[in-house]
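Shipment paperwork, digital attachment
Item: protein structure file
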Amino acid sequence: MKFIILQADGMPDRPLKELDNKTPLEVANTPTLDKILQTSEVGSVNHIPKGFKSGSDVGNLSVLGYDPRKYFTGRSPLEAESMGINLGDNDTTFRCNLVNITNEQSNNFMEDYSAGHIATSKAHKVINFLKNFVDNKEYELYPGVSYRHILVCKNKTPKIKTTPPHDILDKNIKEFLPTGDDSKDIISIMNKVKVSIENFKIQNPQFKTEKLSDIWLWGEGKKTILPSFKELTGYSGSVISAVDLVKGIGKCAKLNVIDVPGATGYLDTNYKGKVDASVKSLLNNQFLMLHIEAPDETGHEGDIKKKIKAIEDLDSKVLKPLIKGLDLNFSEYRLCIVSDHPTPIELRTHSYEYVPYLIYQKGINLQNHTFKSFSEKIVENSNNVIHDGHDLIFSLINN
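Attachment content:
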């Protein structure tokens, strides 16, 4: 038996008046998803334990079977693991976003948390330039993918509290700057970098039109240690994602992390490459998590049309060819489709509602419902509820 999780990051939403009080998932054309629903088990699940901030760090740990209450140490150390950064036990990491902050009437607003989804090649030029002004005995900046990078604070545990930039879109950043006894250093770095980016754009006129003005430091944490996925579940497996966070969880879990050329985590990602790599990975392993980021990113953008497209792409460019490949290569498999959290258009950030899931098995009718389409209505009306999200994977692999 092969076990697959298709993680549709941030796909669930809330009803929108622009869609006649329907959600993007209800409006999207998803024939493959709705077809397999008819023989699938469905229910709702919560991946964000009480007291934790809703996010892909906590959510993806839970999706992979790790209780965040036991294993979560922060977001950035998971991304650092993916990037091959060798952290010491006393190091603290920060996620470093390239962002665009605008000034209006002496107030600064978070206009874009992703610097316009800046290309990785351009981002590396910026980060390598900034290293000349940031790196010293205490701090070191590391380039990542697109707008996502890492700052390491060496041999120190600063007392600090930060806010994700995607939580403060269009808001005055003054109210959300880092706080705590040791926040001055971090704010100083952010202020210094602002000037450095201005100088960089002067020296590199081709960057003049980029939506890039600042860095934003957040997601602080210490080195993460997880039991291997095989120790946890008894199975070996792989992870496919464009996102360093998910890759980092995979590495910490000693899963095989597969890099797919052209995978971006956005609408322009290499869907075919990810599907082909997924089927190939299962020839030698029993488990795979395929992570699709675009629904989450388009939710953060607050773009209804783009989010609907992200969901329809997931159905036509991921799920349809994935099932075809699985059917051709394997006599038995079970597929779980789930999200780590909602990313509602109206909020442009993550929320705390339970999310729908389905479990489909080739050739077996698991149906426990009367739903005609896969949507948030399952959360509202299903009696099948998993309150601790890290238990879902065991429903998948243990039937």
